[in-house]
Amino acid sequence: MVYLLVNWLLSALSLMIVAHLVSGFQVASFGTALVAALVVGFFNATIGLILKIVTFPLTIVTLGLFLFVVNAIVLLLASKLVSGFVVNGFGAAFIGAIVLALVHLLMRAVIRA
Questions:
Q1: Residue 112 pLDDT
Q2: Half-sphere exposure of 62 (CA within 13 A, CB side)
Q3: Residue 113 has pLDDT above 80, yes or no
Q4: Is 63 left (phi over 0), alpha (psi -120 to 50) or beta?
Q5: How far apart are CA 15 and CA 30, in angstroms?
Q6: Is the pLDDT of residue 81 over 90?
Q7: From residue 45, how far is each of 23, 50, 52 by CA, in Å?
Q8: Sequence-separated (6 or more) residues with CB below 8 Å from residue 93
């Protein structure tokens, strides 16, 4: 249970950091980031999983880089549902997905160390 809470907080904090680094990617407050992290996590577990299964051959051909496209789509969908979480276009979502993956990876590495 603690693992889920820490992961949720790290995801929300990662969204806040990405909002400061990527233009076209905005999060109104930390509360909004918490809600957005929940929605993104839910979409990744449902819609994202289906998209990853369907696009698996393309993911293999692109050596996994197509997963950033799937994650960008998930971010765009989440931004449509959560007020205060704005992603302006696919370009911002794509760059945001890459930066979000890197930031979240670094934060999890620091927590484990």
A1: 81
A2: 13
A3: no
A4: left
A5: 9
A6: yes
A7: 27, 9, 10
A8: 25, 72, 73, 75, 76, 79, 87
In this prediction, residue 2 carries a pLDDT of 87
Residues in the chain: 113
Q: Residue 38 is encoded by which pair of tokens?
A: 């929940």
Whether the Cβ atoms of residue 9 and residue 38 lie closer than 8 Å to each other: no
Helix (H, G, I), strand (E, B) or coil at 48: helix
Query: Rounded to an integer, what distance in angstroms lies between the CA atom of residue 31 and that of residue 5?
Result: 14
Coil, strand or helix at 38: helix
Greatest distance between any 2 Cα atoms in the chain: 39
Give the span between the Cα atoms of 55 and 29, in whole angstroms.
34
